[in-house]
Design goal:
It is a single chain. The chain has 251 residues and is an alpha/beta fold. The chain folds into two domains: 114 residues, Tetrapyrrole methylase, N-terminal domain (Cobalt-precorrin-4 Transmethylase, domain 1), CATH 3.40.1010.10; 116 residues, Methyltransferase, Cobalt-precorrin-4 Transmethylase, Domain 2 (2-Layer Sandwich), CATH 3.30.950. 35% of the residues lie in helices and 20% in strands. The chain has ten helices and ten strands. The strands form two sheets. A five-stranded parallel β-sheet has the order 3-2-4-1-5, with helices on both faces. The chain has a five-stranded mixed β-sheet with strand order 6-7-10-8-9. Strand 2, helix 3 and strand 3 form a beta-alpha-beta unit.
Length: 251
């Protein structure tokens, strides 16, 4: 149990727990530490991206209390500034709160950072818990430089801007050895893959990590020319893309 911070004239402040969730349909106990599940089970307040997904997760973890007894706060593109400002009210009164992502780790390619920023501003303790993160898992399995890397998030949608960005990332990866990591919305993954095939030099090395931690997981690192000779169909499949150099060339 983490200690609460006490104040003379205020109630004890609660803790904001950042709780990673499964990336796919795997049973939570396969990828979530028992400690994280235990904390999730005792929380009465949860900030979530999608209410239905959150309730399904709690059911899969066999939560020992009624899900209807939990107060949910939805954090998504429809949340107003006033809504977000009230999400930590329970913590101000001493109750612990959990922040869970739609999939993977909160605040990493995820809208949760605004809650964490607010928690720091008002003195709420923030505790990140270990669990699945597709970006870090892809880097681990890529064979690329894990000491020097950068995550770019989503690349430009417009074709010319996307090509320009790909060339920029390729130059960084090849000449500096810095691993370049990026993602795309699953329904645009095939277009991104095809743009990489058209834009990058045949000798450039690309890793694609698809459906991480699921039964259909594919993580493969090879040259662009090899990818061109055996193209993938990754339409609507969650994927992480990495441009890098082989481990033997890392200084």
């Amino acid at each position: 149990m983490y200690p609460h911070t006490s104040h003379k004239d205020k109630p004890l402040s609660g803790i904001l727990y950042l709780i990673p969730t499964p990336l796919g349909d795997d049973p939570p106990e396969w990828v979530m530490p028992a400690h994280a599940i235990s904390i999730l089970h005792r929380l009465d307040h949860l900030i979530v991206e999608n209410l239905r997904t959150a309730r399904r997760l709690l059911s899969k973890t066999h939560i020992p209390k009624s899900i209807d007894s939990i107060q949910f706060y939805e954090l998504n593109k429809h949340s107003s500034e006033a809504d977000v400002g009230s999400f930590l009210d329970a913590a101000k009164q001493g109750s612990d709160i959990g922040l869970i992502s739609e999939a993977g780790s909160p605040c990493i390619a995820d809208p949760g950072a605004i809650i964490v920023q607010q928690a720091h501003k008002i003195g709420i303790k923030v505790v990140p818990l270990a669990g699945p993160n597709s970006i870090m898992m892809a880097l681990m399995a890529s064979g690329f430089n894990g000491q020097w890397f950068v995550f770019h998030g989503y690349l430009p949608i417009q074709a010319n801007a996307r090509i320009k960005k790909i060339r920029e990332l390729e130059q960084h990866a090849v000449h500096s050895g810095q691993t370049q990591i990026f993602i795309e919305t699953p329904y645009r993954n095939q277009q991104l893959f095809e743009a990489l095939m058209r834009t990058c030099h045949p000798s450039t090395t690309l890793c694609i990590a698809i459906d991480i931690s699921s039964d259909d997981e594919v993580i493969l690192t090879q040259s662009i020319s090899q990818w061109q000779s055996s193209p993938l169909n990754i339409h609507k499949k969650p994927a992480v893309f990495l441009l890098g150099t082989d481990a033997h060339s890392i200084q």
